[in-house]
Input
Amino acid sequence: MSKLESKKVLVTGSTSGIGLAIAKTFAKQNSTVILNGLGTIAEIKTIMDDLSRQTSGKIFHYGADLTDPLAIEEMMKKIQEEVGDIDILINNAGVQHVEAIETFPVKKWDQIIALNLSAYFHTIRHAVGPMKEKGWGRIINIASTHGLVASPYKSAYVAAKHGVIGLTKVVALETGGQGVTCNAICPGWVLTPLVEAQIKEKAKKNNQNYEEATHEFLAEKHPSLAFVEPLHIAEMCLFLCSEAASQMTGSAVAMDGGWTAR
Output
């Protein structure tokens, strides 16, 4: 029996990409997995059915708008009433916009800060009390290498991810000695649709093929010359919930192909 079989895991932004990989990894541990994310009714059903085939645990979905604090509060209350107290909270939902600061749309700034930072605060503040009462809990915030270093034209994203790491440290201090840990994972380049679009644009601009543009793109930041895989991040989440990581708290774990080693 998996030690996580009895645990209830909420993963935000888990209907695609990194979040879905995390959800699948915990489903395979037979945890109760609580999804949150966008999608049509049919798409969500397909995801839930797929996860259900991989687990003996239960699968739930709550589609709250995480830019709205009241919607988050309502979602967290519903989860507590219908599923029970959350044992493991994995904040992953996020959005990005790339533009020079003087023309950066204010609405985009507000959206990115709300989803990439404030939503993490709101889910944590609702989940952490029961964790402390039970004497066990794991909070994992998916930050970014951009929580450790900056890049131009990403003012809101970099600000939010730096904020996530600061929030992680504060929560770690406030939960110290109570069986609850809070850590951040800082991935480098993951081959998301946004990154793929950047590579295609680079190839077009420099008259390169996709492979050449990909190599140059990775070489600029990743000495490893390889992307971080969603499964790598999911497995790190699993490790941070293990007994071996019980004394890891307040950490910002870089998974960046050597980006921040330069």
Remarks:
- Residues 190 and 227 are 5 Å apart (CA to CA).
- The mean pLDDT is 96.
- The chain has two domains: 8-188+228-261, 191-227.
